[in-house]
User: What shape does this take?
Amino acid sequence: MASLEETIRDLCHQIDRAIRQREARRVEDYLATLDTEEIDTDLILELIYTEFVARSETGESPAVEEYYRRFPHLKDDLQELFFVHDLVAASLRSSDLTAEDDERDVLISPEATTQIGAAVPASETQTDSFASAIQSGEVVGNTADSEERGCSGTILGHYELLEEIGRGATAVVFKARDLRLKRCVALKVIHQTSWDQAARERTLAEAQAAASLRHPHIVQIYEVGEAGEACFVAMEYLEGGSLADRPDRVWSPREAARLVERIARAVQYAHEHQVLHRDLKPANVLLDLDGSPKIADFGLAKRLDEVSPYGSQDDFLGTPSYMAPEQTMSGGNVGPATDVYGLGAILYELLTGCPPFAGKNAIETLLQVRNQDPVPPSRLQPYIHRDLVTICLKCLEKAPERRYPSAAALADDLQRFLEGHVILARPAGP
Assistant: This one.
C-alpha cells in the first residue's frame, strides 16, 4: 500500500498533467479524495505549488491572492512559499538558469549579479560581460584566442590570463600570472555591466574587507581592482582543488572532524575581525597539495558591524543546500551562527557524502531547509560516533540560539572529540 507521501507525489503528477492538457482541475478536486486531517501541511503546499507552477508555465498568470482566498488557513505558509519562489525566480533569471538546474549550483541573491559567484553553468551573458571588459581598453592582448583558448595570452592590468579554471553566476576565474611579482594567482573577474553604483561600491568594499584577513586556513587575497566594466580579485592559487571536487569521497570521521576544526578556527578569526562569510560550502574550501584546507570566496562576506538585527534583503543569499534557515527568510537575523550552520553543513557532507538538504530544485531545497530536520548522519553512515553526530546536528539547529555560540566553541568541541574527551554538546530533545 502506497504511503501518504507517495500518494501526494502521484497526485502532483496528476495535477501537472491535467493542467498541461487544459483540463479544468484544481487542488481541491484532489484533496476531496483524501482525509486532509492526516495530511502534513508541507504536502498540501506541494500540491498547491505544483498547480501554481503548471498554470504559470501554460500561459496563465495565477495571482497569489487567489490562493490566499482559496486556502485562508494556509495564508502564512503560502506567503512564505511565494516569497521564496519570487526570490529564487529572480536569481535564476539573472544567472541564466532554469528551475530544474541543480539546486546546489544556484547562488541565491536578490541582486544576483552583485555577488562573487558560486559555481553555475556557463552563460552567454558571462562571455559578453568579459568581452566588454576586453573592449574597454583596460584588457589588452590576444583577444582573438580568448574564446578558443580560455583567454590564454590576454592581459588584464598586470596579470596574464593563462587558462579558465572556473565559472560563477557573476564571475569567471582564471589561472593567471602576476607579471610584476612573477607568481601564479587565481584571478576572479567579476561582471558589473548591470550593477548600479551602490552595488559596485558595496562589492568592492566586501572584497577589500576579506582582503584584510591573514590566516593559514583562509585563501589570501592579494589585490582588488577594476578594469573597465569589470572588477577583479587576485588571490592565492591552490592546486589541490576543492572539497566539492571529491564528490564520491566519504571522509573518515576523524579526518572530517580535524578538517572542520581547522576551518572553524579560521571562521572564528574572521568573525573576530568583524567579517562574516555567509556562503560556507565544500566548493569554498580549497586544498593545497598537502591537503591543508583554506576557506575561499569571501565574496558574500559582510562586516559584522553592518549586520542589522532585523535582517535585510541582502541577507537572502547563499547556496540552497548549505544556507541557514535565517538566510531564507525576510528579516532573518544573519550573524555568526549562520557561519556555524555552514560549518555543520560541510561536516555533514564530509561524513555522509551528501548535503543536509537536496530537493529537486532550489525552491524545494529551501523549503526543506526551513521546515525539515536533516537525516541524522549515523542513519546514512552507521559507523559515525554518536558524539560527532551530536556536534554536527547542533550546528544544524533551525534556531540560531540553539547552535554553538561561536565557531570557536564548535572547534573546541571537535577538538574534545578528537582527543577522546567528553563533548559539551548534548543530543537534541524530542
Observations:
- The longest strand covers residues 159-167.
